[in-house]
Amino acid sequence: MDSPARNPLLADLPVFEPGWVWLVGAGPGDPGLLTLHAANAISQADIIVYDALVDERIMSLARPGATVEYAGKRGGKPSPKQRDISLRLVELARSGKRVCRLKGGDPFVFGRGGEEALTLVEAGIPFRIVPGISAGIGGLAYAGIPVTHRDVNQAVTFLTGHDQTGLAPSSIDWAAIAKGSPVIVMYMAVKHLDQITGALMAAGRKADEAVAIVCDATTEKQRVLETTLGRAADDLRASALEPPAIVVVGEVVRLRAALDWIGALDGRTLESDPLGTRHAATETRLA
């Protein structure tokens, strides 16, 4: 019997050449959110250098004989230094390996992919960037929270909750963000949530503004805490939730009452109009 023909789309994916490094986004957790380019990279690589937030099941895509090397970085825990990881990529590529640097989310969204790529450029190593779905978008979608909604916001700000020192970023203009961004999505903000929420309220955001904290987004362990800006830090402490987490501030959080599609699969009853906009819009059209 003839073997089935390979799908032309898959046949046209790029060949991973020896001596190259591909910086690959693995998405926010669910292996089903890998891109075709990511799966293609993993399946061809000689060595996969992966982060802590990459689902272990993704490694089943590796070809027989491939080496898997852990380089996980987790806040507050012993981790390889970023410079050492970057230099390791150079070392492996110079030895003729096809190196897949597999990173949670997207390499260029708070993933230090830019730092690693610049090291490769300095060393003369050829590389490819494979974007991934960032947790600040895909993770919130799994929680039933859109980062934009026409009735709520025409802008959104993505920021990190800590800088290179591990402290809350001192370079962020919290007053400008509080005033100018109706929706704020924060990565790695749990540790300094008290300070961050206080800064936003001091800059004029209301204490009763909706907030959601999504932990272990898109995985079987996903948990969502719905709270308010004024109560977020206390409610988080009272819960059993831990990082990794995405924090979102803004009225889009209220849409979860209608859009929690995972909750609906488990029998949750969804609201049809959580923002109360549908009736108002109808009245406007009739007027």
Automatic annotation (TrEMBL):
EC main class here is: transferase
Which pathway features in its UniProt record? Porphyrin-containing compound metabolism; siroheme biosynthesis; precorrin-2 from uroporphyrinogen III: step 1/1; Cofactor biosynthesis; adenosylcobalamin biosynthesis; precorrin-2 from uroporphyrinogen III: step 1/1
The protein here is known as uroporphyrinogen-III C-methyltransferase
GO-annotated biological processes: cobalamin biosynthetic process; methylation; siroheme biosynthetic process
**Which family does this protein fall into?**
Belongs to the precorrin methyltransferase family.
Q: Which NCBIfam families match?
A: cobA_cysG_Cterm, PRK06136.1
- Matching Pfam families, A to Z? TP_methylase
> Which keywords does this chain's UniProt record carry?
Cobalamin biosynthesis, Methyltransferase, Porphyrin biosynthesis, S-adenosyl-L-methionine, Transferase
GO terms assigned for molecular function: uroporphyrin-III C-methyltransferase activity
Ranges of residues in domain Tetrapyrrole methylase: 21-232
Instruction: Give the coiled coil ranges.
Output: none
- What are its E.C. numbers? 2.1.1.107
